[in-house]
C-alpha cells in the first residue's frame, strides 16, 4: 500500500474530525486500518503527524566529489561507470551503481552512440550545399532519382555495444558520435535501391570478406 504524504495525513485527520468513521477513512486513503489508528495516536501523543527524524545511511561522496565526477566524465564520455577510478569519503572506492546515480542526477545517461562515417568539415559543407540546392525540387524531378542504402551484418565477431555518457539532445554532437571505417572480418552486405512508384526496387545480398 502507498505511503501517506504529509498532505494526505492532514486530509485523513480532517475527515476523522469531521465525523467520518475509520472504516471509511482507510478505504478512501487506500491504506491499512492500522495506519489511520497510529496516525491519530501520534497526533494525540506528539501533537504532530510528521515522521520521526531518521539518521539514514550517509552519502559515500561529498558534493565536491560529485562535481569532480561529472567534470572528469566530460573529458572521456566513452568510459564505462565500472572503469572509473573514483574515490569517495575517507578515500574509499565507490561502486559503479553509485557512479551511475551521481551522473543520472546531473542528467547524464549511458546510451548507444550515434554511428556515422567519418566526415570532415568539407564533407559536411558539401552535403549542406546539396541539400539546399535540392530543397525546392518537385515530385516530377525526384522521379528520376533512385535512393540506395546498405547494411552490413558481421559473421565472425560482434560489433560490440559501446556506451557514451551524454545528456538528452546531445546525440548528434561530434564529440559523442562513434566514427567507423570499413573492414572488420567476414560479413553479409545487404543493399536496397528504391525510387518513385514504378521505379527500380532491388534487394541484393552477398558475402564480403574483409581481412
Automatic annotation (TrEMBL):
Signal peptide: none annotated. It holds the Pfam family HTH_Tnp_Tc3_2. GO terms for biological process: DNA integration; DNA transposition. One of its GO terms (molecular function) is DNA binding. Residues 66-135 form the Transposase Tc1-like domain. InterPro entries: Homeodomain-like_sf, RNaseH_sf, Transposase_5, Transposase_Tc1-like. Gene3D superfamilies: Ribonuclease H-like superfamily/Ribonuclease H. This is Transposable element Tcb1 transposase. It comes from Elysia marginata.
Amino acid at each position: 500500500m502507498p505511503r501517506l504524504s504529509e498532505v494526505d495525513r492532514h486530509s485523513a485527520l480532517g475527515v476523522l474530525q469531521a465525523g467520518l468513521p475509520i472504516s471509511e477513512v482507510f478505504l478512501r486513503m487506500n491504506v491499512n486500518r492500522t495506519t489511520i489508528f497510529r496516525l491519530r495516536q501520534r497526533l494525540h501523543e506528539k501533537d504532530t503527524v510528521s515522521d520521526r527524524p531518521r539518521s539514514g545511511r550517509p552519502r559515500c561522496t561529498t558534493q565536491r566529489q560529485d562535481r569532480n565526477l561529472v567534470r572528469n566524465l566530460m573529458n572521456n564520455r566513452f568510459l564505462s561507470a565500472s572503469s572509473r577510478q573514483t574515490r569517495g569519503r575517507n578515500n574509499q572506492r565507490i561502486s559503479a551503481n553509485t557512479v551511475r546515480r551521481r551522473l543520472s542526477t546531473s542528467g547524464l545517461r549511458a546510451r548507444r552512440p550515434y554511428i556515422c562515417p567519418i566526415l570532415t568539415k568539407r564533407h559536411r559543407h558539401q552535403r549542406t550545399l546539396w541539400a539546399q540546392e535540392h530543397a525546392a525540387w518537385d515530385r516530377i524531378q525526384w522521379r528520376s532519382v533512385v535512393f540506395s542504402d546498405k547494411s552490413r551484418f558481421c559473421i565472425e565477431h560482434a560489433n560490440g555495444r559501446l556506451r557514451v555518457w551524454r545528456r538528452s539532445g546531445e546525440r548528434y554532437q561530434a564529440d559523442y558520435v562513434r566514427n567507423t571505417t570499413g573492414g572488420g572480418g567476414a560479413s553479409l552486405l545487404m543493399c536496397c535501391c528504391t525510387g518513385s512508384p514504378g521505379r527500380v526496387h532491388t534487394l541484393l545480398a552477398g558475402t564480403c570478406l574483409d581481412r
